[in-house]
Amino acid sequence: MTMEPVRSKRRPVLIALAIAVVLAVVASVVVIALTNFAGQQRRESLTLLKDERLNALVEARDKIQPAANAYLAAYKKARNVPATREEAEKNSAKERDDFQQAINSARSALSAVQTGNGSSEEAEGIGVAAAQLGDSYQAYLDSMEGLVESYAQFEGLFREDGAGCNGLFVGSKAANLRERQTLLGQAAVPCREAVNQLKQSKNISYVEFARTLDNEIAQLESHAETTAKSEENYNEFVRLKDEYVKKADDATARNASEEELLKIADEVKAFNTRIKNNRSEFDFAAKRYLNGVKEMPTLVEEVFSKNVAAQIKHHDTVIPLRVQVLKDAIDAELAA
Amino acid sequence: MGDKSLEETISAPPRARSRRTVIIVVALVAALVAAGLGTWFALSRPAEPGRADVVRLDKHRMIVDNSMNLYDPLVEQFSGRYSNAISEKAGQPEEEKVLSQDRERIVRESQANRDRLEHMAESPILKDQAVAESFNRFKDQYSAVIAYNDQLLINTTNIYRSVGGPCAALHSSLNVASETYAQDYVKSADECLAALATAKDGADAETTTLLTEVEAVIRGQRDKQQEVLNSKDTFERLSKSMLAGLALLDINDAFAKAQTTYETATKDKYSKIIESANSANSDFEGVLKKSLEQFDAASGEGK
Questions:
Q1: A2 belongs to a structural domain
Q2: pLDDT band at B4 (very low <50, low <70, confident <90, very high)
Q3: What is the largest CA-CA distance in chain A?
Q4: Is A208–B81 a contact, with Cβ atoms under 8 angstroms apart?
Q5: What part of A 292-311 touches B (C-beta under 8 Å)?
Q6: Domain range enclosing A158
Q7: Domain membership flag for residue B232
């Protein structure tokens, strides 16, 4: 064993070692450069998200409500010409398209924001804030889309060439209460069908209104049945009363026994109780029937004046707050 | 012995080689560790808390403060939808849907807010005693706002489920003049009382008081109507029924009183919570501002 083989063995090792060290250094430099570059890129994309995409999102939302209003007005105007639902839809097609376009732009503005927030691992705050904004924004778009989509259906509920719910207001068309009940029942069939369709709307204000209206119709039907029955009972009572009077007169005329007279008296008393109960049931149902009919126009009116307005106000409060929170989350991430 | 010497001659060269291998491996590992450490140092933020940490914490403070304003509209939306689903008898699936969508949204909201507070607690700037103290107060007060709204969610659900559900029918859809009124009343009242009993589950003190008061009023009415049913003769029935009817006249007062007590109590409670939160917030804001000024002053002197 001499030195030679050792030296010849050590040299490649040293070379290998040197190469390894150089490689490691180069690799770490590359890693550092890449992460710095990635960090720089991330900062740029966050700045873009905050300054451009979020503003685009807000601007896209600002266009939704005017577009929806324009469509609702155009449709209503076209329908009042008068025109059928199909014609009115045709004549408001431009506004409808404009609205749909506004919705589509808003949806793509939203997806630009959602893809633009980068990996949520690094900044959980941004991910959560963006998801919350997305949730609220989406809900707003869906509800406005539902408002427009189901408007023709809603608007046609109380039209004669629509669902014919105005047939519920029987009024003086009926000769008696049984006829009123029949007419009401006839009007209720197509009306109910339309109401149930409205329950499928994407807009909760329509859905809640449809639920209430459905229950109101059921109440009207039940009260109409009660009052019709009471009226028939009453007619029967008038006939029975004559019978009792005749029976009592007979008994008195032929000097009937006290026992028989008392029995007749008891019958009359029971009869009076029936009349009284019939009357109270009638009053109860009639009062509610009239109230139901009287309040129905208010119910319809409040869909827009109260519920839709409240819904829009809700979104007008929530979405700007969500945007602000996301902006602050980005600022926190960018702080240096 | 011969065996052993043979073994040594064979094993000597590999031992020398293995030593070299060890050196190479150690050197390689050392190089990699050094490179790794270098990368880590280059990437990690300076351990010393800096101005950016203050700015960041202040932004997080604003986020939490702004997020609190979302509770009112969200809770309002939930209670509106839930009460409609219950009062219009939309059915179990519909009620479940409101609970799983609108209520769960608020539950998630609260979780996100608590996470935000926890995240803030990790800020390096909290090494500063004054900032830490102010933050802890901020965290406690805002946690109280979150907890209040979580409880409000439970209360709202319970009240609508009972008072808005089976109890609503009691004084709106029964015909007082009807022959079977006493019977109908007792039946509906029993349903209402059962619902009220379950509604106390998980309710807070104020809500439990409200439910108990409503319960007492309805139980009183129910028992009076039961006496009507128990009466042996017509005269007794008539007089009991009249007394029960008269008692009904007081029911609105009793309900109004229970409701006013409840509203005053919860309003007081909430405004106190909000007040403390606001004061903790402005205090924390001031402390952070001061800390920022210190950093600015320090960097100004440095130049």
A1: no
A2: very low
A3: 159
A4: yes
A5: 310
A6: 45-334
A7: yes
